[in-house]
Amino acid sequence: MIASARRARLSSYRLGDLKKLITARLSRLHTPSRPRLHTPTLHTPSLLRAASTMSRSTVDLGHMTIKLLPALSDNYMYLLIDKSTKQAATVDPVKPEHIVSAVESEGLHLSTVLTTHHHLDHAEGNEKLVSMVTGLTVCGNDDRIGALNKTVKHNDQFKVGSLTVTCLETPCHTKGHICYYVTSEDLSDKVVFTGDTLFVGGCGRFFEGTPEQMHHALCQVLSSLPPDTGVYCGHEYTVSNLLYAQHVEPDNKALSEKLQWAKDKRERDTPTIPSTIGQELSFNPFMRVSEASVQNHCKTTDPISTMKFLREEKNGFKPKM
Ligand SMILES: [Zn+2]
């Protein structure tokens, strides 16, 4: 009797919990979407596994199309499409089912996975994707990347249809971080997928590297790309990054204009991607560590010390949204 009473109490308790859960889920579903402003602290998958409500968008260039597919709380996956052959690559497909449905609806041939780094919010979908699509080449430069079958090095090149992919080693956020620079045959289209190395208005944390390495990645490797190269990064962190940038350079006009533009975009739940290398050089403090205005803020004239100071200050910076 006691046991059955306890069972009854337990099951009614569970039923009550279930009702609460369903009510909470439903009310969340019916809550109008608000601007999603995230601080750049998460590098592991969010507990909220629901697909992001951020709108997808497509960038249509002369020879290539880039589809932005938001995932998790603030990640971006990408589909890179060669228009002439319909061959495609995907960058950091953490939610592979969304990639596969986009590939099928567009009638594409997906051949390649470009993995920027091993963190789970970028690479966790690889194993599932290779089980859904046969014959995929999975690129990266870290044994911790799932389903990796093509280890790439600096300046390695390969084709996706008529497009050329050049691998750029940018270790610091992680030891094996790779950025992928993609060009059309006539070089009229140029884009770079920067993962968690370069963000719009900021850069990734130095989890496995040094200020020297991030300086090399941002101020030598990525800064030397043509200024009109489109920048496609791994997270939607633009507004909080630019609020910090404004703290560093309050008189930078390009920066304040970009911040206002980014706030308007986010209020409409629209991505702030892509940027360009040229734009980043005008307002991203981590790419401007040789500028007097940025060095003055950090009270040093050494670019590496400036990089170190910026990263440490940014780690503790609480933007006023
Ligand atoms: Zn990361």
Keywords, separated by commas or semicolons:
321 residues; alpha/beta; Metallo-beta-lactamase, Chain A; 7-stranded mixed β-sheet; 6-stranded mixed β-sheet; 15 strands; 36% helix; disordered N terminus; binds zinc ion
CATH topology: Metallo-beta-lactamase, Chain A
The description of the largest β-sheet is: 7 strands, mixed
Overall number of strands? 15
Looking at this structure, what is the CATH superfamily?
Ribonuclease Z/Hydroxyacylglutathione hydrolase-like
Can you tell me the residue ranges where pLDDT is under 50 for at least 5 consecutive residues?
1-53
Shape: globular
Report the radius of gyration as a whole number of Å: 22 Å
Second-tier CATH architecture: 4-Layer Sandwich
User: So how many helices?
Assistant: 10
- Give the neighbour order of strands across the main sheet: 1-2-3-4-5-6-7
